[in-house]
Amino acid sequence: MSVKKITFKVSRASTYFTLGAVRFYDEKGNVYPVKFHAKDQLLENTFFIQGTKITGKVNTTNSYSTYYFVDSPFDTDKPTVTTYSQRNYWLSSIADTISVSFDIPIKISKIDFVPYCGDDANRKQNAVEITAINHNGQVAISKIYNTTSYLINQIYTAQTDELSFYDCQFFKVNNRLYTTVPLNINYETKMTSNTSPSPFVASSSSIYSTTYDAWKAFDGKNTSSDCWITLTNTTTGWIQLDFGTPKRLNTLTLTSRYESSAPTVSPKDFNILGSVDGSRFDKIKEIRNQTGWGVGEQREFAFENAKDYRYYRLEILANGGSSSYTAIGEIAFGYKGFALVTIGKQSKKNIFNYGANSLEILNMPIFQKNYVLQKGVLDSSDGLWTKKLERKPRSIKI
Predict the structure, then answer these.
(1) pLDDT over 90 for what percent of the chain?
(2) Phi, psi of 386 (to 5 degrees)
(3) How far apart are CA 287 and CA 314, in angstroms?
(4) 177 vs 379, residue with greater confidence
(5) Contact 8, 18 (CB under 8 A)
(6) What's the mean pLDDT when you consider all of the chain?
(7) Are 217 and 330 in contact (CB under 8 A)?
(8) What DSSP element (H or E) covers 352?
(9) What is the per-residue pLDDT for 385?
(10) In a 3-state reduction of DSSP, which class is residue 217?
(11) What pLDDT does 192 receive?
(12) In the structure, what pLDDT confidence band is assigned to residue 298 with cuts at 50, 70 and 90?
């Protein structure tokens, strides 16, 4: 089934509403790797599914204190086993519902979830109601799962006939079968210095001190001291990342510093620049009036870009009002788009594995073309593999 939104409504047996690890599976039975640029948010957070174009949002109306977060159940970087000390689950004494939505429909074959979390009896749940909305906005699933066995960390599975049905759309030109696959490339740089790991190189126009060096904005962490800060009494400047080789990027994710000064020290007006040689920069995008930053807040900016640049730079023109410095918690670049796929053999397996939910994106430019191949002698269990061509595909006349 292609799903746009899933809601989990829990029924508590005692004091708290809780929900532990939630895992979504694709049509092949693999867990979707759900990732968060900025982890541990109380009420709302955005995510991406690694290796795809799919992004989304999780939200609720209440989370208990600063230990139990709305993103914890869905974060596949966190373990499925919950303990009191880890606090890697959502808990609330007020709200009973937590939701996840996807920007484009996602194929889901089953859902695993953990209702009874931690090691305290006041976290028992009587039931979990799961409601799924499909790509047409219709209720595809609305089912209540009894969880009164009260076993800590027991995994329950939601799997129905509706979850096993998929839309598979293609188009044919000159007797060739084509489809599109989403791309969502996120560069998790996880830097440990300005030049490590290779080939990344981070640099900036100034730094407050070596504690707040440029690479701190590309290390995948965000604390009050784990960020980039400009020189004292300097609020403008730039920070950039050298990717080592040219990349075509069209998304920027900024996360504010995890500190109470975030509303005033975060960038308000800035430009995104690109360069092939590190000397001459093209202005790719102007971004203005980014005010009201929360502590550790994450914002994503999309921009049009039809060129491969090796260097990407943020040119900061103004912050939220501080005269002391400008600070950024995390910076992440990425690419969202689609690849055109030629289906070599019109087999049932190919149609099931590569059929698209929708072909509405055919009016968008596509810069990558893949081929699905199948040989007479099988080299793998599926006998299928793709070949990536690093060039713009020829046009297709319809």
Answers:
(1) 56
(2) -120, 150
(3) 10
(4) 177
(5) no
(6) 84
(7) yes
(8) helix 348-354
(9) 35
(10) helix
(11) 96
(12) confident
Q: What is the pLDDT of residue 231?
A: 97
pLDDT at position 29? 84
Q: Are 38 and 151 in contact (CB under 8 A)?
A: no
Among candidate residues 383, 368, 393, 382, the one with its CA nearest the CA of residue 181:
368
Kind plus residue range of the DSSP H or E element containing 6: strand 2-12
Residues 4 and 1: their CA atoms lie apart, in Å, by 10
Whose CA is closest to 44, among 328, 374, 298? Answer: 298
On whether the CB atoms of residues 92 and 68 are closer than 8 A, the answer is: yes
Amino acid type, 15: T
Helix (H, G, I), strand (E, B) or coil at 326: coil
The Cα 118–Cα 350 span in angstroms is: 43
pTM of the model: 0.57
Place of tokens 């102007």: 286
Outline where 120-213 has alpha helix (H).
none
The strand ranges marked E within 13-138 are 17-19, 22-25, 34-35, 44-49, 55-59, 90-92, 97-107, 110-113, 125-134
For 151, the token pair is 């076993």
For residue 367, what pLDDT is reported?
57
Residue burial 182-194, b: 16+ Cβ < 10 Å; e: rest = bbbbbbebebeeb
Tokens of 19: 């929900």
